[in-house]
Amino acid sequence: MISFLIPEKDLPYDPKDRKSVAEYTKLLENKTLRDYAYVPGGLDNVKNKGLYGQKIENLFFFIKTNNHAGADFPDIPLELKTAGLLSTSSRDRHKNISGKWKSKEALPMSAISFEDIVNEDFFSSRFLEKNKNILLIFYKFEANKVVYDLEIKVTGVWSFSEIPDYDKKIIMDDWEKIKSLVINGEAHNISRKDTDYLEAMPSATSDSMTSQPFGPKARTRKFSFKAGYMHSVIAKLGSEKTNTISLFKKSDKNINLSDKINDKFAPYIGMDASLIASSIDVSIEDCKQAFSILSKRLVKAIFNVPEKGNIEEYVEEFSKAEVTIKTIRINKDNLPKEHVSFPAFKYEEIVNQSWDTSDFKRHIDKKFLFIFFKESGSSFFLDRAVYWNMSSNHMNEAKKVWDKTRELIQLGTIVKNVKHKRRYTYFPGSKDNLVAHVRPHAKDAKDTYKLPVNDISTKSSEYTKHCFWFNREYVKDYIYNLKK
DNA sequence: GCATGATCATGC
DNA sequence: GCATGATCATGC
Are residues A263 and A133 part of one domain? Predict the structure, then answer.
């Protein structure tokens, strides 16, 4: 039972009218809660952003905090959520889809009950019941600021019924995917990258466990919208001109992202690289990343991305689902010519990170679009486009490589043999782990990053830049051939 | 031939 | 100027 702190008839908005609530909420934009809040004796100094929503309910909407399961505005129904914003930088890959502001992180919504979801269907699910209409209040994130002084920048209502059909389809598929993992007794192996927009986000405390009907205890999780998805929600609420391109047409109803990508690539599959180049009217560069450049130009041609635009930024679905594109050349036996590199890591940073906050995990905890060119005679043809994400058990394999690498850097035991012509390292090699290994990634051997601890055998305080690489055998078996 | 170290062009 | 996304090259 909702009870108002002032009589309902005196409320400055109509709690039974969603539009009225949304318009009233707009008064908060470019203001702080302190501009509206009145408490006899003054406000407290709450800094915990988890309490911000309650304070807004109490002081701005004059609603007592409700502890029951119902919505904050039960008649319409509307669920109030507050979330942080960061300003986008010019180097931001989400700049184009986000406009001025981007979401600080994924938006947690309601808890997932593994016991219940297996008996639900999407349209009568607790997820949809609880989250079909969300009143969003976004503030500029500033750590350690008293909540009353946070600057509110964007507000508005997100409604499932009002998003495009192709977005609904992706969210429904995401929900179904989570449900099917639970049905298969795999709730303990769910990963955020199994889905596109709606993810099963683990609770912040890693030891919080709950039961699942057909498997061992699993981490408790919440349905959450990915940060990439929230970027576009924020831009739309803020009426920013984002100039993005959707893979879907308005009439697309029952097609998912993976199938849509395959459809778009289909006309070019089997086509020789030189023929692709001439048919989209570009030339093939003569450099190391020639195939990467060609495949990005092909993607731009297929999806109508401007020549100068960044694909992962312009293609709305790639931005919302946080997709990374990798181009791979494979030989006649489907083995990639090369291992697959990631950005070089900084030795001083990796020792201060945990696996969950590490850059490597952040890079691989995403969706990928692998574009494979296969060798044929003296040329290569476009063979496959694979929309892919890593499984949780392989994630654990990757973690072993990261753990070992971090340990070696911490101990200062990187270099194996100084006297040898070439310097060999103790970093995990491609035979040591199924998924990944560590190798140099630098302009040349003199291109270094500082070490947190001097290397014992070289006495050096810096070392050639290195990065994590996906093993090419792994790419062949688990990405190209989709082995489980 | 493969594992691993070394290096390069592009684009922002 | 440097990070990125790759390929080249050496030596076991």
Answer: no
Residues 6+ apart with CB under 8 A from A353: A359, A406
Span CA (A318) to C1' (C9), Å: 36
Q: Point out the nucleotide closest to A442 (alpha carbon to C1′).
A: B7
> What average pLDDT does the segment A14-38 reach?
91
Which chain A residues 272-301 have CB under 7 A to strand B?
A: 285, 287-289, 293
CA of A445: nearest nucleotide by C1' is B6
Residue A2 lies in a domain: no
Q: Considering only residues A65 and A398, tell me which one the structure prediction assigns the higher pLDDT.
A: A398
**Structure tokens, A356:** 């969950």
- A207 part of a folded domain: no
List the domain range (segments joined by +) for residue A380.
Answer: 257-480
Give tens-digit pLDDT for A151-207.
999 999 999 999 999 999 999 999 999 999 999 999 999 988 899 999 999 887 767
A447 secondary structure, DSSP code? -
In-domain check, residue A172:
no
Token pair of A130 as six digits = 């609880």
